[in-house]
User: What shape does this take?
Amino acid sequence: MVFPDYRPRRLRRNPQLRSLIRETRLSPEQLIYPIFVMPGKGKREEIPSMPGISRMSVDQLGVEAKELLGLGVQHVLLFGLPEKKDAAGSQAHAKGGIIQNAVQELKNKVPEIMVTTDVCLCEYTDHGHCGILEHGHVNNDATLEILAKIALSHAQAGADIVAPSDMMDGRVAEIRAALDENNFDMVPIMSYAVKYASAFYGPFRDAAECAPQEGDRQGYQMDPANSREALREATLDVDEGADILMVKPAVAYLDIIRSLREEFDLPIAAYHVSGEYAMIKAAAANGWIDGDQVMHETLLSITRAGADIVISYGAKEMARLLNG
Ligand code: PBG
Assistant: This one.
């Protein structure tokens, strides 16, 4: 059928027709809101490069969670800034560590909020790398045991989902085994299966004070030029027992989201990262774009590409927009 018999504009005539044939819908239920937790009491500090996002102390989390639930956002992803850092990142799995306390606080105060924790070392090591450093390189196998310890300590504190973001080989299997041996066989792993060595993480590294002191993360995070390798990474994580596969960043990697969607039947998450968020905010603050509309279009695109779950700093404002 061709013009003039077929006229695509017939179904675009008014909002009711457009919404009838809409293929992709955003909903607050698919969003996860990241939160940076800092030491102290009664603290909220705006992050300059991430307008609208604050680091907050543990005692603030209850109020934050209630606000999110009120908007229909049921999931948070926690990142911690520890009181002190050391070479082995020991505060990451410490009893009474920042994330362990944060999880407990949330589960005590607002049990309905679902808490996912970031499992990584970079916020806890004094050198800022995601694992144990040896002669300037991250030692993969020495890091695995520590990652498993971190994930277990989060589960023990009450985490609903653990999300390893370190990009060590073999960590999903190691974490799954540690959880299962300790009766946490019902705690899912959302694996950062495909995480690129991306410059879009810039604002996050300010927020979480975790930029590497020396070198970069290209020895463990993926080369942005590669897409076949993304399928190999994801296959490994599926075989090791991942429950949800994540792609990160999101907007610059929509093709990767789509190819994972086509290859795998697990739920796919995409992380709309700090730099992607900051660019929208900066342009909106200048009056160059309509920030709300661009945020909506962006998160919609990520969903259309094939993500079931979207992790975004824009989750709150998006939920507000969607709720009308
Ligand atoms: C920790 C981690 C990072 C992000 C999430 N987990 C930073 C990094 O790998 O350098 C980035 C998130 C964002 O930019 O919003 N490994």
Q: What stands out?
A: The longest helix spans residues 140-157. The two ends are 38 Å apart (CA to CA). Residues 24-322 form a domain with the TIM Barrel fold (CATH 3.20.20.70). The CA atoms of residues 132 and 142 lie 7 Å apart.
